[in-house]
Every structure is written in C-alpha cells, then in structure tokens.
Amino acid sequence: MKAIILFGHGARDMRWREPFDRLAELWQSQNATVPVELAFLEMMEPSLDEAVSALSLAGATQITVVPVFFGQGGHLRNDFPVLLDACRAKFPAIALSVTPAVGEDLAVLQAIVDFGVRAL
C-alpha cells in the first residue's frame, strides 16, 4: 500500500499547524485510497518516526515524504536526512522516498504568483 507524509518544520504556536491540517484533509478528500500523515521536524507531533510507524501499522509498504518547505535550507539538507536514515533503519520493510521541497516546484511557484495577481 502506498502512503504519503507531509513533512513540515513545526512551531510553538499551534495555529501554525492549521494549514497543514487543511492540506492533509484536502489530500485525503481527493485521494481517499492513499493514506496521509503529517510529520514535523520539531516542536510539534507527530515526528517523522511516529508518522512512518502509524502508516506502517496501517499496512503501508511505500511511503513518499513531501517536505512542505519553501526551499532546501539547512533543516532539509542537514537535519532531515538524519531523521530519514533513522526511519529507513528502523523500518527496513518500508520503501521510503522523498520529493524535493514543495517550494521548488514550478507549479507551486506559479500558484503563489497567481495568488499575488488575484490580490491586486
């Protein structure tokens, strides 16, 4: 079974999480057969390990991690690979793959430009 993890930074203010919850709900409403979990680097739960564990228990064998970051900063270049490697070691039966940061995708950038145009 395939599944997806939407991976964000995390914040102390719980309101920061609200768009991530909406994103996960939107994903699930449009892709009902592909489970989705949120995961956060720090300050929020679940962690990447916890999200992989939950999806594993639900029967996932292939998990794609989507970093919901604007770009490849230090957290994605340094911290995230360590967490991902730990998950790969802990869950060897699960194929874990990763996409680029969402902010590096041209369609996402265009959506932001379109948003700005609508704001004018």
How would you explain this protein's 3D organization?
The protein has helices spanning 18-30, 48-57, 74-90, 106-119; strands at residues 2-8, 36-40, 62-67, 95-98. Strand 3 (62-67), helix 3 and strand 4 (95-98) form a beta-alpha-beta unit. The longest helix is centred in the C-terminal third of the chain and has 17 residues, at 74-90. It has a single domain (2-119), classed as Rossmann fold (3-Layer(aba) Sandwich), CATH 3.40.50. The chain is an alpha/beta fold and 120 residues long. Helices cover 45% and strands 18% of the residues. The protein has four helices and four strands, in the order E-H-E-H-E-H-E-H. It has a four-stranded parallel sheet, with helices on both faces. The protein is globular and about 50 Å long. This is Cobalamin biosynthesis protein CbiX. Keywords: Lyase, Metal-binding.
What's the structural blueprint in terms of helices and strands?
Layout: E1 2-8, H1 18-30, E2 36-40, H2 48-57, E3 62-67, H3 74-90, E4 95-98, H4 106-119
Parallel strand pairs: 1-2, 1-3, 3-4
Q: Ranges with pLDDT <50 over ≥5 residues?
A: none
Distance between the termini: 44 Å
Which architecture would the CATH scheme give at its second level? 3-Layer(aba) Sandwich
User: Count of DSSP helices?
Assistant: 4
What structural class is derived from the secondary structure elements? Answer: alpha/beta
Radius of gyration: 15 Å
Along the chain, the helix and strand elements come as: EHEHEHEH
The tally of domains stands at 1
Overall 3D geometry?
globular
Please outline the major beta sheet.
Answer: 4 strands, parallel
Strand order of the largest sheet: 2-1-3-4
Number of strands: 4
